[in-house]
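Give me the fold.
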Amino acid sequence: MKYQVRIATSEDYEKIKPIHKEVHDLHVEGRPDKYNPTKNTLDKEYYLNLVNNNEGRVYVIEYDKKIIAFTFLRKNIASDRETVVKHSYVFMEDFGVNKNYKENGLGRLLFDKALEFTEEVNATSLELGVWEFNETAIKFYEAMGMQTQARKMEIKLQKE
């Protein structure tokens, strides 16, 4: 198969929405206490801000004129406080591959683009958040060389 990896444009918004919904639905299933089922999962203003901002980047993979994978990236700068080492990093805000195209190396292609963008903007690291229930994603990110740097924990006091 011949895939095209490219920087997304504002015109790609509607084409990305179905995959974005797939990713959201996975989160609804894994954490129904945190995510609501909804038809519209991708805020257009948020998307356009990423596409039109030099500090953000959206990459897509296209096959047969259909977008089958995406990643949303944003450069951030750590708080300028005396106790924190000032540094810039890229945060991977979202990542998704159409379920029909998984296990074809597309995740690796996007991840490599994320690393290229991180270097391009002179950031010191690429960071992301991943839910503990998403074992497939955790294994993928670890295979890409990522390591856990912090852990967010909870204790549930009551059922909602």
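The domain at 4-143 is CATH 3.40.630.30 (Aminopeptidase).
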